[in-house]
Amino acid sequence: MVPHRLPRRSFLGLLGAGVGASVLGTSACGTDSTSGGDGGTFQVWVLQEESQNVAHEGAVDRFNKNSEVKARIVASPNDGYTDKLHVSMGSGNKPDVFYNWGGGSIRTYARDDLLVDLTPYFEEDKAWKDSFLPSVLEAGTIDGKYYGVPARGMQPIILFYNKAVFADLGVQPPTTWTEMIRIVDRAKANGIIPFALAGGDPWTELVWPEYLVDRIGGYEVFQKVAAGEQNAWRDPAIARSIDMIRDLVDRGGFGDSFASVRWDGAGASTLIAQGKAAMHLMGSWEYTNQVNDQPEYAKNDQGFTTFPTVEGGVGDPKAIVGNPTNYFSVSKDSKSVDAAMEFLKQEMASDAYIDQWLEMGDVPAVTGLEDRMDKAADPAFAKVVYDMVTQAPTFQLSWDQAIERAQAQPMLDALSKVFLGELDAAGFVKANEDAA
What we know:
Oligomer: single chain
Distance between the termini: 40 Å
């Protein structure tokens, strides 16, 4: 149970722009946040979140009881964390172990040989590797090498729906795009907004091309984009997804005022909870938000299902998108690499660590969790999330975290213009190619 509404950036981090190192404040547990470990201690950089640090501090406390080299938590505010990390990784004071999102958030560091290649560690200890879900572990790879150890729960994008609204409309959860369009048209005809959308924050719109491209063209389409392959943005699946989004907007799929709805104001979540909207395509954190903010709705009418298939698409219908998890990576310059690795091996898949995440409402990215669902804050929802991930052949990392930081904001800006009717598929592709 999280005591406040969860911002999506609590899970993804902030792209951040122009934040000077001098204003990037931190709070630390017994250490200076601007200096690395000294060989007798090593730093574990995390976000400044009360809920997640219960598990992180528990892991550090357990490790420190039996280790001569001590781990120390350094907690930093979400806002500006990626900039703080970027500055530190370019200095002589790199963190020893640091929290990240895989993909584009660490790709440059890996290619600049600043990170410990974890592949040999996983090869030497197969049991440790096998304790993590393969699709999630794979999302922590760069150029075929492992650089991240799963550090917390999984956040797939889920199609939420209001059960009461669906009953009034006489419809069932859609399994195909055609079925979903019929629901959109019926909802609009009955004065209901088909999809709640906080379009004032473009990242909320990103879930649409992420799923559509995956369903239409398969996982490999965006993997080529993330890898920087030439002409990757020109894949027909991307253009088709943009055309489908434009059609959905023109049908009134998001209502008339979505661009003025902001995520932090809980506007989209409130629309579906109050029955003014029928559906909401959003990350699994939306479930916890509704439990906190609209408990009666969450208990009685909050439904959830997978994203539908797209007729003619070649993507696997069980593939998912979102945030596989967050990761811990290790700086190659650390004076305590051995101790840092021992910390990760001892704690990241330990029973105590896993149970703490379950009790807080997260579903850790570990195997064999089925028999432990009773520890979860909501066992039924935890099972849905876990089944989605364990059955998924691929788990596409959110696009704005999968690509380089400099390309992410132009992509979000272009997508916002698509939703506003100011850019077509060709314009969207060109905008992203220009930013590459």
